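Today's session is about reading a structure prediction critically. Students often jump straight to the picture, but the first step is always the sequence itself: look for stretches that repeat, for charged clusters, for runs of hydrophobic residues. Only then move on to the predicted structure, which in these notes is written as discrete structure tokens rather than atom positions. Here is the chain we will use throughout the hour.
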Amino acid sequence: MILFFDTSALLKLFVREEYSEAICQASRAASLIVVSQLTWVEMCAALGLKQRTRQIDVPQATQALQELRDEWDRYSKFAVDQALIITAGELALTFGLRAYDSLQLASAQRAHSQVGSNLAFTCFDKQLNAAATALGIHTLNP
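Below is the predicted structure for this chain, in token form.
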């Protein structure tokens, strides 16, 4: 199984949250993990937010970022290009998604078009999962 991780799922590999263990198990079982390039920015922002809101402390944030740096090259990444931006805009209008969510979905849709039913979209946002399902993309619900 190939897993497409949006940021809400990928974060669980680096910060202990609800469902972190299930995501860790799924990632170990996956033949490949795919992410959008924009996930790097979202991960940094998420780690910063968790630190500012005291969900994690500075050493935990620093460690999580270093682990992300160590793992980043192991993920297959979809680039953000003009065609993806156009698709994301259409998806935002169709499903009422936020900008980065629509870019994540457009990346997952592109990945799905390349690998088909062997891909599972892994996300912890109900609206985004519903949109992926509407597009015929299997979602992983740990």
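Discussion point for the tutorial: The mean pLDDT is 96.
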